[in-house]
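Thread: "does anyone have the structure for this chain?"

Original post by V.I.:
We have the sequence but no experimental structure in hand. Need at least a predicted one for the grant figures.
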Amino acid sequence: MGLMTDVLDWLQALPQPGLVAATGGLVLAECTIGLGFIAPGEAGLLVAATTAITPTRFLVLWGVVTLCAATGDSLGYLIGRRYGPRLRETRLIQKYGVGGWDKATGILRRRGAWAVFFARFLPVVRTLTPAAAGTSGLAYRKFLPAAAAGAACWSALHIGIGAALGEAAKRLESAMSTGALAVVAAVVAVVVIAHVVKKRRAKATPAAVVEEDLEPAA
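Reply from O.Q.:
Generated one for you, tokens below.
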């Protein structure tokens, strides 16, 4: 077997409860305002989804991720209710997400609860929309169904993509020579490393200062 097959087989052999719990934790963190800028929930979900090789595994991962995403959205909503409009002026939003915040609030004004559903599929905006919804005064009884539906569709889509990518990787590996595969793997590794380094330089902030950054800017 080749390297990709070995890695995928290793992931699939991991204890499923631990893998699902870790993925759910990453998604919950990403969906909670503030932590969404440092937690790779979407990437973690795609990796974990390569292990969804049976209907049972798919459904378990889907259920846990949907619950965690909806819970993270609810926490973001409560933060928005707590801080109100001044949340936009906090250091965290000003530094990392003021454009996304303004976009989220604009969509909310036009679409209401529908914005909560569709924002789930927009990077950055999905992290900020729940807090913006809480700030805007959108009733929680309207927010929760939209957030839950969005979380369910988003998680099903990403798990499906991850599972398909895992299967495609195995088929690709079986069709390629070892030398060609090594070249592809090296190129992918360089691109991924460059992307991670660039993203960390641009956006990374220590988790310890997230709470501090939620304080109003001076």
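V.I.: this helps a lot. The first helix runs from residue 3 to 13.
O.Q.: and Residues 205-214 have pLDDT under 50 and may be disordered.
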